[in-house]
């Protein structure tokens, strides 16, 4: 699985790159603060909802620190999705957040 550090993701987003970022934390964590304009697809629902993701796109998965997003990434790779795990996660995000 490919990986990127949270600082690199932030640089890409601030440079205007259009990325498919998916926050896999749970509802309360997402509600407390998330990167603006990211897709929310909690890990607890991924088994029933992963087909909502479009095949052929690259998805950057983010959670609090990088562990859950790595697990979700391994699951999605089994179905042919192109995944990049964001290491460092939201606990290291320094940019704007929506709550």
UniProtKB/TrEMBL annotation:
It comes from the Bacteria. Keywords: Transferase. It is an enzyme of class 2 (transferase). CDD domains: RHOD. Coiled coil: none annotated. The gene is ytwF. The keyword Membrane does not apply. Residues 15-98 form the Rhodanese domain. GO terms for molecular function: transferase activity. SUPFAM superfamilies: Rhodanese/Cell cycle control phosphatase. Pfam families: Rhodanese. This is Putative sulfurtransferase YtwF. Its EC number is 2.8.1.-.
């Amino acid at each position: 699985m490919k990986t990127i550090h949270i600082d690199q993701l932030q640089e890409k987003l601030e440079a205007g790159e259009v990325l498919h970022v998916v926050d896999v934390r749970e509802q309360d964590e997402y509600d407390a603060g998330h990167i603006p304009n990211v897709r929310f697809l909690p890990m607890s629902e991924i088994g029933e909802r992963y087909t909502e993701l479009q095949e052929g796109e690259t998805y950057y998965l983010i959670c609090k620190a990088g562990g859950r997003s790595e697990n979700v990434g391994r699951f999605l790779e089994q179905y042919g999705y192109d995944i990049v795990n964001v290491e460092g996660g939201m606990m290291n995000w320094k940019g704007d957040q929506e709550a």
